[in-house]
Design a protein that fits this description.
heterodimer; A: 689 residues; alpha/beta; globular; B: 250 residues; 8 helices; 28% helix
C-alpha cells in the first residue's frame, strides 16, 4: 500500500467524509412522495424522478488524493410512495424484504463499454416504436431520466475537479460523461458511478459480479500500451476497493456489513479455460493489504484449479476477513443447468450478496425469498413417533411435513410487487427491448428457499433412528418430556443424545447418509413448484439470519440441543459436536448430492489464528480447500478467529473497532453486531493446533 | 494383532510432516523433558484428566487393526495432498510391536512418518525405522550432562541412533525444541549442526520455539509445571541457514 492509499484509507476509516452528509429532511426532499401522490405520477416515473432529485441534490466531494471519485452526501433515500399508499400496496401484494429490486447481479460491462450517449440512443430509437403502450413508454422515459441525472452529476464533478486543479480526474469524467471507457481508470470510475447510482436509486445488495473478467480488457490494454505500469494499475484497484467502504454504512442490510458487495474471481469457461488472470491476483493482493470488509471476495474453483490459487486464497484467509469464499464450478454449473439455466448462463454464474448462485445480466431471481426450517419439520412429526413401526415410516411423515410447509411457503409468494427500478433496469439485459422494468421480471425469475438447521435435523433424525427405533432405549413420551422441559429432569438422556449420539461432521456414514436423504427430499418437495413468474424454486443450504429466527420458538431438539442454543449457520456441523477434525467435517459434508441444492450456502470452517503461523501452514489450508472441492463440496467459507480476542472484544469494544468476523454470508465488524450474532461467532467450533 | 495405548488422533496436524496428515499421539515416554507440552503423553497408562473440574480419562487402548482402520479411512485425502500418517507421542517407539503391527497393515499404501526422541535401544530403532518413509527426530542437546539434567536421561542412545539415521539414507528431519537458556546457545546449535551436516538424506531442520502455553496442561493431570529455565529469552537460529541447510521455524 503506498502512502496515497494509506492516507485515503485513514481518511475513510476516520469517517472524515461524513461531514459532507445531509439528510433528506435537510434538503427538503424527504417528502417527495406526497407530491408524487398529488400529481398521480406513474410508479416507474417516481423512481426515476426521485433518483434525479437526489443526484441533483448531491454536491461533489473529492477527498484529498482521490483519483476515483464520487462520495455520497445524502444519508437517506426518500420513499416514492406515501405511507398510506405503501400500506395499501402491502395489503394487496406480497412484498419481499424492503420491496425494492435487490440481490441481483447487474451488467455493468455493457454500459461501461457503450457509454451513456449510446445507451441513450438505444432508448430513443426504441421510443420511436408506435406500438409501445403507455407503460412501456413511461418506463423508457424513466430510463432516459436516469441517464440524464447521471450525466448531470458527472458534469458537476467534472467542473469541481477542474476547479480544484485535478485535471486528470476532470478529463476522465469528461470522457465517460458521454462515451464508454477507454482506459482502466475510466472503466473503474464509470463502474464506481454506476454502483453508486444503484444505491442512490434505493436498490441494495448490489453485487459486483465477475470484476476480474469484465475489467480485464481495460487493464490489459493499458498495460500492453504502457499507459499504466502494474503498480499503477494495482494502486487503482486498491483505491477502487477502498471506495467500496466509503458509503457502505449507509447501505441497508440486516446488520452493519451485510451490504452485498460481493465480487467474484476466476471460474472456468465453456471451453475449459480457467479464467484467473493478473487482475484476479491483484484483487486478492489488494484485499490482503487493505484488510477491509468490502468488497467481499469469492473465488470460483474446481478440481483442476491449480494449487497456487488455493494458496493465494489462503493467504487472504489468514488475515481474518472471513473471505475468500470458494464455490465449485464442477457442482454449481451442472446444478444450475439442472434447474433450467442455459449452459452459457450457468457458466457465467456469480455469487449474490452472501452465497446464493445467480446469473449476471439475465436473472431477476429472488434467491432468498424464504426459508424452510428442516429441524422444525423433524420436531413437529415427533407426535407421530409412537405410531411408526420403523424409521422409514417416520421419515416418510417428515418428508410429507416438508411438502406441506413448502406448499404453504410457496403459496405466500403470490401477487408479488417490486418497486420499479429504472436505474437497475438500465444495467440488465433486454429491458429496453422489452420496454419493461426489471422489477417485472427477466429471462430467469427463480426463487430460492434456504433449508435451515440441516445438521440439527440430521443429528436429531440419527438419534431417533438409533435410540428409538434400533436400540429402543428411548421412549417417545420420555423424549417429549425431555424436550418440553429442556432436559431439566433428564440429564442422562441429554448426555446420551448430546454426547454419545452420532453427529454429522464426524465422517460417520450412519448419520451422513441421513443428510443425503434429507437434502434429496428438500429438492424433491420443491421440484414441481413454479412461481407466478414461471420460475422454479431452488433449494439451498444457507441460513441467512434464520439461524437466529428459526431458533426462537424451536425449543430443545432430539440431538440434545437445548432450547437456548442456536442452530448452526449455513451448512455446518452442530455447535457442540465432538470434534474429530476438519477432514472428517469435509468428508461428511461432501456426501450429499449438492448439485441438487444449488441455491447455495457454504460449509463454514473456523480456524484459530495460530494455525496460520507460517507459509507452510497457509499452503496446507489451501490443500484442505482443494480437498473439499475435489470431494464434491459446493461452497466453502473459512474464518480465522481467536476466541480470547472475541471475548475480550465483547467486553472492550473500544479496543476492537477494526476486528472483522464472518457472520453468515458476509463479513462485518464484530463490535457492530448485535449480541446474538456475536455469541454465535464465539460459539462456533474452531480448529486449533 | 497387538494392542496399544494412544491419547489422541488429530486430523490435519499441520506441523507433523508433508501434506495433509493424521497424527497419532501414542502414550508413554522414557524422557522427562521439563518443557514437555504433552505431559499427558508421559505415562504409558490411562490416567485421569481434569478440565474445568470435569474429570475425563486420558488415553485409550485399541488394537493395531482398529488404529489402522482409522488411519486408512482418510487415504483418499492423504493421496490428494501427498500426506499420510505421523506417529508421535509420548514416544511412539515406546510401543514398537504395536507400531510394527500398524505399519504392516497400512504400508506401503500410506506414507508414514514418525516423530521420535531417538531415546530407545538401537535394535528397536533399527527394526522400526526402515518401515517408515520419513523420520523426524528431536535433538535437544549434545552434552550428556545437560541432557540428563533437563530430560532425565543422557543422550548416549540418541546419538547412536542419530548416527545410524545419518548413514541410513532414510529421509529425515531434525527437530530442535529451542528452550531459552537450555539449548539455544550457539555452541550447542553448532554441535548439532556438525553431527548432521554431512548426512545426504537430511531434508531440513525444524526449529520449535518454546511456547509459553506449554505449561497449560500440567494442572489438568495433577502435576506441577517446573520448567527450570527462563521462559522469556529470544532464540538465535541463523547458524543453520549459514551452512545452507534448509531451516524452518514452526
Amino acid at each position: 500500500m503506498n502512502t496515497r492509499i494509506e492516507t485515503l484509507k485513514n481518511y475513510i476509516l476516520d469517517k472524515k467524509h461524513h461531514q459532507f452528509r445531509r439528510t433528506g429532511d435537510e434538503l427538503g426532499i424527504a417528502n417527495i412522495s406526497e407530491s408524487f401522490e398529488k400529481d398521480n405520477i406513474y410508479p416507474v416515473r417516481r423512481s426515476a424522478l426521485c433518483f434525479y432529485f437526489l443526484l441533483n441534490a448531491e454536491v461533489p466531494v473529492i477527498i484529498p488524493n482521490e483519483k476515483i471519485v464520487f462520495t455520497r452526501t445524502i444519508s437517506d433515500i426518500p420513499e416514492i410512495y406515501t405511507k398510506e399508499e405503501w400500506d395499501n400496496i402491502k395489503n394487496t401484494y406480497y412484498i419481499h424484504e424492503r420491496g425494492t429490486v435487490c440481490n441481483i447481479s447487474p451488467d455493468y460491462e455493457t454500459t461501461i463499454r457503450a457509454g451513456f450517449e449510446s445507451r441513450k440512443k438505444e432508448i430513443e430509437i426504441r421510443l420511436e416504436d408506435i406500438n409501445l403502450d403507455e407503460e412501456g413508454r413511461a418506463f423508457l422515459n424513466a430510463t432516459l431520466i436516469c441517464i440524464k441525472a447521471l450525466q448531470l452529476i458527472i458534469n458537476k464533478y467534472e467542473k469541481y475537479a477542474r476547479l480544484k486543479g485535478q485535471n486528470d480526474t476532470a478529463d476522465v469524467l469528461k470522457a465517460i460523461k458521454a462515451n464508454g471507457a477507454n482506459s482502466f481508470r475510466e472503466a473503474l470510475q464509470l463502474l464506481r458511478i454506476l454502483h453508486f447510482a444503484l444505491w442512490e436509486a434505493g436498490n441494495y445488495h448490489n453485487t459486483f459480479g465477475r470484476f476480474d473478467q469484465y475489467m480485464y480488457p481495460y487493464y490489459k490494454k493499458d498495460i500492453d500500451n504502457g499507459i499504466l505500469t502494474e503498480e499503477e494499475a494495482f494502486d487503482l484497484v486498491e483505491e477502487f476497493f477502498l471506495v467500496c467502504n466509503k458509503d457502505s454504512d449507509l447501505y441497508p442490510g440486516m446488520q452493519q456489513g451485510d451490504n452485498g458487495q460481493s465480487l467474484v474471481l476466476g471460474g472456468r469457461d465453456m471451453d475449459g479455460k480457467y479464467l484467473f488472470n493478473e487482475l484476479s491476483k491483484m484483487c486478492l493482493r489488494a484485499s490482503y493489504e487493505l484488510e477491509l470488509i468490502d468488497p467481499k471476495i469469492n473465488i470460483r474453483v474446481d478440481k483442476y484449479t491449480p494449487a497456487e490459487i488455493f494458496e493465494l486464497g489462503s493467504h487472504l484467509t489468514k488475515i481474518g476477513l472471513g473471505f475468500p469464499q470458494y464455490s465449485n464450478d464442477d457442482v454449481v454449473i451442472p446444478g444450475l443447468m439442472r434447474k433450467g439455466y442455459e449452459k452459457e448462463d450457468a457458466y457465467n454464474y456469480v455469487v449474490a450478496a452472501c452465497w446464493e448462485f445467480i446469473i449476471p445480466k439475465y436473472a431477476m431471481d429472488i434467491p432468498n425469498i424464504d426459508g424452510l426450517s428442516l429441524i422444525s419439520c423433524v420436531k413437529e412429526c415427533l407426535v407421530e413417533l409412537e405410531g411408526c413401526p420403523d424409521y422409514e415410516t417416520y421419515y416418510d411423515i417428515v418428508e410429507q411435513k416438508m411438502q406441506e410447509k413448502i406448499d404453504a411457503i410457496c403459496d405466500k409468494h403470490k401477487n408479488i410487487f417490486i418497486i420499479p427500478a429504472p436505474m437497475m433496469s438500465l444495467l440488465m439485459d433486454g429491458t429496453i427491448e422489452r420496454a419493461c422494468d426489471i422489477s417485472l421480471g427477466a429471462k430467469y425469475n427463480n426463487y430460492g428457499i434456504h433449508g435451515t438447521g440441516i445438521a440439527t435435523a440430521v443429528d436429531s433424525l440419527a438419534a431417533i433412528k438409533k435410540y428409538y427405533f434400533e436400540e429402543k432405549c428411548m421412549d417417545a413420551r420420555g423424549l417429549f418430556e425431555a424436550l418440553n422441559d429442556n432436559f431439566k429432569n433428564e440429564p442422562g438422556l441429554e448426555k446420551l443424545l448430546r454426547e454419545e449420539a452420532p453427529k454429522m461432521g464426524q465422517d460417520d456414514d450412519y448419520v451422513d447418509s441421513i443428510c443425503v436423504t434429507l437434502l434429496d427430499s428438500f429438492d424433491k418437495v420443491l421440484n414441481n413448484k413454479r412461481n407466478e413468474r414461471d420460475g422454479v424454486y431452488r433449494p439451498g443450504t444457507g441460513t441467512a439470519m434464520y439461524y437466529i429466527l428459526h431458533t426462537i420458538d424451536l425449543g430443545a431438539t432430539p440431538d440434545g440441543r437445548k432450547a437456548e442454543e442456536m442452530i448452526p449457520a449455513n451448512y455446518s456441523p452442530t455447535l457442540f459436536m465432538k470434534q474429530k477434525g476438519p477432514v472428517s467435517v469435509i468428508k461428511s459434508f461432501t456426501k450429499p448430492h449438492l448439485e441438487n441444492v444449488i441455491n447455495g450456502g457454504p460449509l463454514t470452517l473456523e480456524f484459530d489464528q495460530s494455525v496460520f503461523n507460517n507459509d507452510e501452514s497457509v499452503k496446507k489450508i489451501g490443500m484442505l480447500v482443494k480437498t473439499f472441492i475435489t470431494l464434491g463440496g459446493h461452497q466453502l467459507q473459512l474464518n480465522t478467529v481467536c476466541r480470547e480476542k472475541l471475548l475480550d472484544a465483547k467486553n472492550h469494544p473500544e479496543n476492537y473497532k477494526q476486528l472483522i468476523v464472518r457472520v453468515w454470508g458476509w463479513s462485518g465488524y464484530f463490535v457492530e453486531l448485535d449480541e446474538c450474532y456475536q455469541d454465535h461467532v464465539i460459539n462456533r467450533i474452531e480448529f486449533g493446533l | 494383532m497387538s494392542k496399544g495405548v494412544i491419547f489422541s488422533i488429530e486430523e490435519f496436524a499441520i506441523h507433523d510432516g508433508p501434506g495433509i496428515r493424521t497424527t497419532i499421539f501414542m502414550k508413554g515416554c522414557p524422557l522427562r523433558c521439563t518443557w514437555c507440552h504433552n505431559p499427558e503423553g508421559i505415562s504409558p497408562k490411562l490416567e485421569y484428566m481434569f478440565k474445568k473440574s470435569e474429570r475425563s480419562i486420558c488415553g485409550y487402548e485399541l488394537s493395531s487393526v482398529e488404529l489402522a482402520e482409522q488411519i486408512i479411512k482418510n487415504k483418499d485425502v492423504y493421496r490428494l495432498n501427498n500426506g499420510g500418517v505421523t506417529f508421535t507421542g509420548g514416544e511412539p517407539l515406546f510401543q514398537p510391536d504395536f507400531m510394527m503391527d500398524v505399519l504392516d497393515i497400512i504400508r506401503p499404501e500410506i506414507h508414514t512418518a514418525i516423530e521420535t526422541s531417538g531415546h530407545v535401544y538401537p535394535d528397536v530403532f533399527h527394526r522400526v525405522i526402515p518401515n517408515l518413509d520419513l523420520v523426524m527426530m528431536d535433538i535437544k542437546h549434545t552434552d550428556p550432562v545437560i541432557h540428563k539434567k533437563y530430560t532425565g536421561a543422557d543422550n548416549r542412545l540418541i546419538l547412536m541412533n542419530l548416527d545410524y539415521l545419518c548413514s541410513s539414507g532414510k529421509d529425515f528431519i531434525i527437530r530442535i525444541p529451542l528452550i531459552p537458556g537450555v539449548n539455544d546457545s550457539k555452541e550447542n546449535l553448532q554441535n548439532i549442526l556438525s553431527l548432521v551436516k554431512e548426512a545426504k538424506s537430511l531434508v531440513r531442520i525444524e526449529i520449535l520455539p518454546y511456547h509459553k502455553l506449554a505449561g497449560a496442561k500440567y494442572t489438568m493431570i495433577g502435576k506441577k509445571y517446573n520448567p527450570l529455565f527462563d521462559t522469556e529469552q529470544k532464540p538465535d537460529i541463523h547458524i543453520f541457514e549459514e551452512s545452507n541447510i534448509k531451516t524452518i521455524v514452526l
